[in-house]
Design brief:
A: about 40 residues; mainly alpha; about 0% strand; B: about 230 residues
Chain lengths: ~40, ~230
């Protein structure tokens, strides 16, 4: 079956989502660790 | 158990939930990319849906929680409500960044344009900017009572905006598709795609809970530190 050739948009969206969520999760872990050390 | 100990315990619980949610989110990627069929007309770009819609749900849930807790704060004046509302707002902004970047990446191949200034997209951008402003406001005000009151007033706006965003696709002409889940009729999606979508919604909700617990415990730890500094000075 022929599909539209737009896989690059899907890959870009999945990468962006993973990066933003991972960066936010790491920032939370880091900030808590810093606040807990004080 | 001291306040600090319970905050650290809550942070640990949030960390575990977040870690589980992140692993499950990776599982959603595998299921969506490898085990969910490609939609015939939209092609692979349709699979953005399994990230975009659940993340949008989590963002609007976060803003709705902020709105409800802000309203409750204005009635009850309990600082804890303000702290949880602020934590939820920051988590909502993080999810909204994903929503507002994956949306155009889906729109371009399917609609032929990155963005359209219609009611759904514009109101979604507006709520995102509102909560960016909310963060700026909280950072600029140092008096805890004034900060809580002013930001609660902003937060209450979410109570109006979130339901409005949901109904924009019915009330206005828009490029954005109507909901496939949150509607009176049965979900308009084949079973295998529906399972992927519902799993992703569940994982994003779990991730929201994990992030919220972590962000709330961080705020409590910072409050304790500020109180210690004030006590040390006086």
């Amino acid at each position: 079956m022929e599909y539209p050739d737009n896989g690059a948009y899907m890959v870009a969206a999945y990468i962006v989502a993973a990066v933003v969520i991972a960066v936010y999760a790491v920032s939370l872990f880091y900030r808590i660790r810093k606040a807990a050390k004080r | 158990m001291t306040r600090r100990d319970s905050a650290l315990r809550l942070a640990r619980v949030g960390g575990v939930i977040t870690s589980v949610a992140l692993v499950a989110f990776a599982g959603i990627y595998v299921r969506a990319l490898m085990f969910t069929p490609i939609e015939r007309f939209q092609g692979p770009a349709q699979k953005i849906f399994y990230v975009h819609a659940p993340v949008a749900w989590a963002a609007l849930l976060a803003f709705l929680v902020t709105g409800i807790l802000s309203l409750l704060y204005l009635i009850m004046r309990d600082r804890k409500l303000d702290t949880i509302a602020a934590a939820s707002a920051e988590v909502g902004v993080a999810f909204a960044v994903v929503m507002l970047t994956t949306g155009p990446l889906w729109g371009k191949p399917v609609w032929g344009t990155w963005w359209s200034w219609d009611a759904r997209l514009t109101s979604t951008l507006f709520i995102f900017l509102l909560f960016v402003g909310y963060q700026v406001l909280r950072g600029a005000l140092h008096d805890p009572e004034i900060r809580a009151r002013f930001s609660a007033v902003m937060g209450v706006m979410a109570l109006v905006l979130v339901p409005f965003i949901h109904v924009t696709v019915y009330w206005f002409r828009t490029l954005h598709p109507e909901p496939v889940l949150m509607k009176p009729e049965r979900p308009s999606l084949p079973g295998v795609m529906l399972v992927t979508l519902l799993s992703s919604v569940a994982v994003c909700t779990l991730m929201y809970v994990g992030f919220l617990l972590m962000r709330y415990s961080l705020a409590v730890l910072r409050d304790i530190r500020e109180e210690e500094i004030v006590d040390g000075v006086s």
